[in-house]
Amino acid sequence: MNIDPRPLYTRATEQIAALVATVRPEQLAGPTPCAEFDVRTLLSHIAGGTRRIAVVGAGGDGMAVRPFLDGVEDDHWSAAYDEVRTEVQKSWADDARLDALVTVPWGEAPGRIALSGYVMEAVTHTWDLSESLGRPLALDPELAEFALGIARRVLPDERRDDEELPFDSAVPAPEGADTYGRLAAYLGRRPLS
Length: 193
Description:
Blueprint: H1 6-20, H2 39-57, H3 77-91, E1 101-104, E2 107-110, H4 111-132, H5 141-154, H6 179-186
Antiparallel strand pairs: 1-2
């Protein structure tokens, strides 16, 4: 895979930012398709994972970064997310970062592969958040297609018995599911309703 995932990652973060802007305070304690997360915890994880890949892009130790962003006031999630996604754009601006070996939670990989994995994570969590909020915005199907392709490539079903892996085995996609629904099902997620 020799693509530049930065434009897709930027689009994914723009989509997340638009979705985060719709979150109302009364929704923060609501459930998500990630059983262990409420909306507030999901936002913390989305922002923390974004900070982690920013550190990786800057040549730092992303594994030393907790994949949650703590201390964000309930009405500051949009600003907090905008700050970390801007860090990603700056840290990955140098083309050389795409071929540099980096360490991410699933191992060592060239930067372009690592960032593609984070596109998959961002798009998956976009679906999680959208489901939690009652699907307030139309989501970009091209991003879901890319993420599903990455998921199928790096997460074959036979490797999902690892307790450290944040994705369950695939479940059947609901009839008529769009690409986001198929991605979610492939990663073991089920809609809330």
